[in-house]
Batch of 4 targets.
Target 1
Amino acid sequence: MKEKVLAIVGPTAVGKTALSLALATKFNGEIISGDSLQVYRHLDIGTAKITAAERGQVPHYLLDIRDVSDSFSAYDFKVAAGRLITEISGRGHLPIIVGGTGMYLASLLKDFTLGATTDTPVTAQAQQRVRQQLAAEWQALGSQAMWQRLATVDPDAAAGIPAKNRQRVLRALEVWQLTGQRFSAQPPLTAPYDAFVLGLNCQRPLLYQRINQRVEQMVAAGLADEARWLFQQVDPEAQAAKGIGYREWPPYFQQQASLAATITAIQTDSRHYAKRQLTYFRHQFATHWFDLLDQPQSAQLEIDTALTQWLRTAPPA
């Protein structure tokens, strides 16, 4: 019998934290952070990390478990979260994954094994760099040239993918570039858990407004000092330093950018990331979407009803 796992996903500033606390209380849950930056100690403001008071309401895991000089890969998350799911389920409680790092959730919920060995872990940042590079090359070179590149390194994959299928061509090239393994040789993805993926979203103008306000609140709360401390500990190439909300600060510290320009850069990067998150969760998971900001009472009722029905349904073997 597969263990049941609830995942709450979506962009920043849509209410994931508040919902996770409410659902954990209602459905006897324990919360596992699925955020790639909240694992780091002292990175509290820029990651919108849950407060100590909120942690006291419900058990939380995978927060503050790494120093900023350490790395933490999707493979590390998969192993740690898998162990916690077994422990939480063994207590008769519901494991709840909360966070927006898509690659982490894919590694766990879909048994995604891209480069997932202890010798060559692939970080979410590395995957994003390769993905952006390949997208730029597709734009510059065109579909036929990119498909021909795939045909050279993985003819079996190319034979089954039309040259104009951008998503699948780039995905196969991404696997090759990150792991050195042919996409056609990758084992099929499996579903080790009976997962319910709950996505939060809202109208795009409101989302962007809330993101902009969230960044301003972070700056008012001392984000600049937190980022300055971070760059005193690590160089800009460290995994922790590449997170949105931190990587935009060095020009300001070097007096090459104003505070206003830095805030705008963080807001812009955050909005772009939110858009990528929504696209990823739509394509990678059978996500159940809800808007708690537009009609909170009816949306909450729909969520409670859907989860109650899911929890009563026997999981597949």
Note: Residues 52 and 60 are 10 Å apart (CA to CA).
Target 2
Amino acid sequence: MRNLSMLTRIFLFCLLSHHIYVVSTSTPRYTDADNIAINCGTRDNSTAMDKRQWIGDIHSKFTPIEEGDPKSNASTPQIQDSSVNTVPYMTARLSYSQFMYEFRVTPGPKFVRFYFYPVSYSGFEGSQDFFTVKANSFTLLSNFSASINIHADSLKEDKTLSKEFCINVEKDQILNLTLIPSPSTSSKFYAFINGIEIVSMPKKLYYDPEGPGVPYVGQNYHFSINYEMALEKFFRLNVGGGFISAVDDTGMFREWSQQDDDYWLGDGVIPRVPSFTPIYTRISDYTAPDDIYRSAVSMGPNTTKNLRSNLTLKLPVDPGFNYLVRLHFCEMVFPITKPSQRVFQIVIDNMIAEEWADVIMWTQRNETPLYKDYVVQIQNKPNLFIALRPRLSAYGIADAILNGVEVFKLSDYDKNLAGPNYPESVPSPLLAQQPASASTASESKTKKTIIVAMGSGAGFLVVLCCMLLWKLKKTKRCASYYPLSKCRC
């Protein structure tokens, strides 16, 4: 009976702890000034499966502005797939002409998210979606095809696609989002959108225009991520943990993907401590959900094996851009409780970003989350490599740890974020079907002109040679009968 009583008390304690946890996390840690979700192609307000409210764009203050003809259409997918969420994917706005959404929002940085369900709609063939997306002066997507991108990774079975960007809105500035179909004379390409989301973020979550800057890997200076830039989210990974939905974020509706084994090169172990509460003394509590810091990937206890290997991530990216790499850390596993117990090297794109990484040295205690930011330039290769190399500590431990990863592409000097369609091996219908452009036609015409000129020149040389030979023969005959001066004449 005594043991039963003890078990009962433990059960009640766990139940109460779980109840307290659920209640304490139900209130978002960050309250956004702007929280707009548009369900495109419908007049009704809708409730998504996660209980979020979405506003229709027909006959509302978010009805798009259109100048060209034909006007946009509101339509539903010709394929009704029960595995796809109804909101916002079962209605869409599509057009063969440019259309624009106008948002009057508060000043400050915003998350801008686009949602696509690339199938056929009435009057619009699914494979003909090629378009550009602009946000004020930024080009976010160019000659983009959701149909191609949805098949970029053959290992995934996703049927919908989302794109997330960070854009700053100045005081008294309107946020304009413009969709422009790609030009074509032989095919009719169209632009489409299923859902748009605008959510405010803390001013210094990813931007820090007045700060010291972010270490620029491979360079001897820091990189300033200022409000003149736009960012595109490429990866947001819960390393060692599961998927975290938008409503389980800290109030900004970010999704955190489950750790993907396809990105890892080598082996690792996954320590998890689902019960502990992170202590936020080094970063704001809205930086990431608690669950990011309750799981991790490390290398395990085999020191000899660890010293011969690394924890390495291989992440596909667009070459030719700078990237913000944010690594999340938290020492939450016994016996790592002191500085210098677990030390490792951080290598990004084969360059040393951190010579001696020591999480507890940074945080001064365990169970305390922290992140480290780095900027790296990726040139001429489609992958970003992040490697953690263990060092043998004074305690005889050789190990590394990682809790979460975020990767953002940074806009270039032309305010461009647009990359290629994926997979790159698939030819773009725009290039395959569109007739030669003016420059291509001009180049072809020039080549023809050169060929004609070369042919004419060759013919002229042949005639000239024949005339010279005939003249030489005649000169010889002339010289035998007349003075040389007359022959020259």
Note: Confidence is low (pLDDT under 50) at residues 1-25, 430-466, 468-489.
Target 3
Amino acid sequence: MFSGSIVALITPFTPDGEVDFVSLRKLVEHHVSAGTDGIVAVGTTGESATLTVEEHVKVVAKTVEFAQGRVPIIAGTGANATHEAITFSRLLSNVGIAGCLSVTPYYNKPTQEGMFQHYKAISQETDIPQILYNVPGRTGVDLKPETVARLAEIPSIVALKDATGDLERVAIHRELCGEDFILLSGDDATGLDFVKRGGQGVISVTNNIAAADMAKMLSLALEGKFEEAEVINQRLMGLHHKLFVESSPIPVKWAAHKLGMIADGGLRLPLTELSQEGKTVVAQALTEACIY
């Protein structure tokens, strides 16, 4: 259902801070042409935290419209309030998305039982396939494998995006959740190794900048051609790391603007423009990756 190279798509803004739907259309076309296997619209990389509810829904709907069925669209629907996550799932239920990506509740630091009940409540309100998203470095809470296993028993919960970078969890999740449960990496630097260990793909920030390379690398990896995939991965390794030299998506939006992919690299407060030092670091990584 979900596999390969999936982009955690940035949300472009105009110079006056409005959503730039012209650039969004260009980005979708770029990913279709590059062979991207899926698009996450308004995930955390898409600045979901600073979009209004109306903007959030419109960006997802427009992404589906622009894709025209050529690539599956996954909507970011996570929130730290369960009722808000349910609302997003309901509002997006009829726009044509293939699935929902729901980050663990952030800041309020629920227990494992709290997270189980959170996702169970969401699943009871929609038939759309649900992807769990565990990123402790940003949320302050870690969805443990045992809890993932409990949630995997719910039919509509079909996958996990694991951004812990802990490769030992791939085998643990596979044993606990079964062969049919989809495991996706959310950490570019360890993404290829994640697939080598049995994962089905990567939801990637690097993909915003190196879509064709990521698509080729994941295609090779899923065919078991790991040596060829590793050649590409090593060339991109600087990007995997340096696109996080400051809080994401600050660096990747600057890079996308520098490459002419979006009209403006602006963000919404509290995120601010990439520092001059950061620009130097990211520009060097682009050069090393043979992208710029």
Note: Residues 41 and 63 are 7 Å apart (CA to CA).
Target 4
Amino acid sequence: MGFVSPATDYVEERLTIDSLCGIDGNCRVIETSCGWAVINVAINASSGDTLLVTMDGRNQFVKLHGQALITEDGEAIEGDALDDVTVHGVLTHTLNRASDDREIV
């Protein structure tokens, strides 16, 4: 069997996107135009949260303010217009794409 090394108490875990962003079975990672977004489908949205929604057949991010959704254009969606909106989850993290598009000669 042998002696257990006390050094194992100080071994650090490897950093992963899953551990840094708290990604679990309730999260979805989607690609956006500037990187990726982590959406949690189990969180109840509260005022000020950013949500991923489908409106008019396209996905977009909106802010929740009271009973209204505010789009990136500043348009408020409220009342009967909310019947056509599908909420997919609350945005918890954004991961920006960092790439170097320069050509190497």
Note: Residues 32-96 form one domain.
